[in-house]
Amino acid sequence: MPVRFNETLQEFWRLKVSKVGVAFLTILVFLSIYVVTSYPLDFGVRYWNNPAYWADYPKSAPPSWVNYFSDQKLPEHYVLVYDKPSDIMSTESGRTLLYIFRLDFQADKPPTFISFTLENLTYYSDPPTARLNVKRPDGKDIKLYEYIAPAPYAGESPPYMRFYDIPKRISITGDMSVASALARFLLREYNVSIRPSEVNSIGQHTIVFSVPGPNKEFYVLKGEYIFTISIDTYDPRDNIGKVKLVIGGNVYGFMGTDSLGRDLSIGLLFGFPIALFIGIVTSTITTLLGAGLGIVGGYVGGKVDEVIQRVADFVNNIPLLPLLIFLAFILGQNIWILVFLLVAFGWPTLTIIVRSMVLQLKSSQFIEAAISLGASRLWIMFRHIFPQVAPFVFAQLIFFTPTFILLEAALSFLGLGDPTIPTWGQILEYGFRSGGIYVGLWWWIIPPGLLIIWTAITFVLIALGMEPVVNPRLRRMK
């Protein structure tokens, strides 16, 4: 048996398509392992389908690398988060928590907005005070904003907890106090007199990232910006869970975002383990069930074979996709229900083919010899018949995998996939439903389609490499 296995492996590995298919599959497996180990299993419910989580992300933004193909470099969108302060300074009245964000800004346009967010604030005496300052590439400092946390309510006892359920999001853009601060900054540093209302119309974010020119024109200032959020606390036990700085932009990440601001690179990554799970698990169960029933029906014969074949013929003649659509709509949108349906209606074809192979093997001399030696039916089916049909069965398992991946993508595209997990089909479906394809959001439509094709081709290449193993006529002459 080891010799035969080694010969089979050598025959499979001889073809270039086999090597390419295995290389592709290795990439898919490693990406799937990375996703499973890096993201929580409830990512779909807790993050992907939670609009509040993506509130600070740009909507329908193309990938950042489009700047390499554009004459004018668009500003990137930055979401900078700190769970712990960069530094802590002791003061006479308590402590100052410093959160320092460094940003190398090289775009040809200013950002679209500036905001910062405070989450999970706890204090025990006086309310903490948060301040936002920025040091520009030209060395000039701007004190942008000051915010005092809500004071204790009547009858409330410490600790005082703020911004746990709903984070405090403070937008610099459109704030008149920031406009006044910027007007004073321009007058002091550049001798440019401008009213706060004019600052507000130009945009606070534009002035922060620009230098004034003649006729009150503003030109983008490139270089390193250092944003500092300082939080003055008055008790050693005062604490804040998370501080976030958002610099709005027109491009984001490696794969851009959808109309909800969701990072498509994360959704596409999460599609890898889902596709492999549905494809491999479903095809494995379907193959075992179909091959097992085919072997039993072909060898046992009689009424057992008649029942199996009639059921197989009936199920095999049912139009699969319309029935899956109907049952998925009736039974619910759940990944386990989908796997059950794919298995329930995917086994008959293999059963019919394997049965015909077993009928030929049934009269072979080695089977008759095993019977004469007193071997049981189960022993003969498992030790003598199955090894003969195993290469074909394994090849069918490989062929089934892309079929089920495409079926899941089709159901998800029709809005019948599991809504609790992101899949490539669902990303495509939402792109069509939200009109992304009609307004040219290609980064939303093309990547999931290419990944579906790539995954299907991976298993097709492996199946092509299996053909010489299944069909000896295709083997090279030695």
Secondary structure blueprint with pairings:
Layout: H1 2-14, H2 16-38, H3 43-48, E1 78-82, E2 87-90, E3 95-105, E4 114-123, E5 129-135, E6 141-148, E7 160-162, E8 168-171, H4 176-190, H5 196-202, H6 204-208, E9 210-212, E10 218-220, E11 223-233, E12 239-247, H7 264-300, H8 302-316, H9 320-331, H10 335-344, H11 348-361, H12 365-372, H13 377-413, H14 424-433, H15 442-470
Antiparallel strand pairs: 1-12, 2-3, 3-11, 4-7, 4-8, 4-12, 5-6, 5-11, 9-10
Helix pairs in contact: 1-15, 2-7, 2-15, 4-5, 7-8, 7-10, 7-11, 7-13, 8-11, 9-10, 11-13, 12-13, 13-14, 13-15, 14-15
What keyword list fits this structure?
15 helices, alpha+beta, five-stranded antiparallel beta sheet, 2 domains, Jelly Rolls, 478 residues, MetI-like fold, 50% helix
Can you walk through the features of this model?
The chain is α+β, with helices and mostly antiparallel strands and 478 residues long. It has 2 domains: 2-47 and 264-474, MetI-like (MetI-like fold, Orthogonal Bundle); 64-247, Jelly Rolls (Sandwich), CATH 2.60.120. The chain contains 15 helices and 12 strands. The chain has helices at 2-14, 16-38, 43-48, 176-190, 196-202, 204-208, 264-300, 302-316, 320-331, 335-344, 348-361, 365-372, 377-413, 424-433, 442-470; strands at residues 78-82, 87-90, 95-105, 114-123, 129-135, 141-148, 160-162, 168-171, 210-212, 218-220, 223-233, 239-247. A hairpin with a 5-residue loop joins strand 5 (129-135) and strand 6. The longest helix is centred in the middle third of the chain and has 37 residues, at 264-300. It is elongated and about 105 Å long. The mean pLDDT is 88.
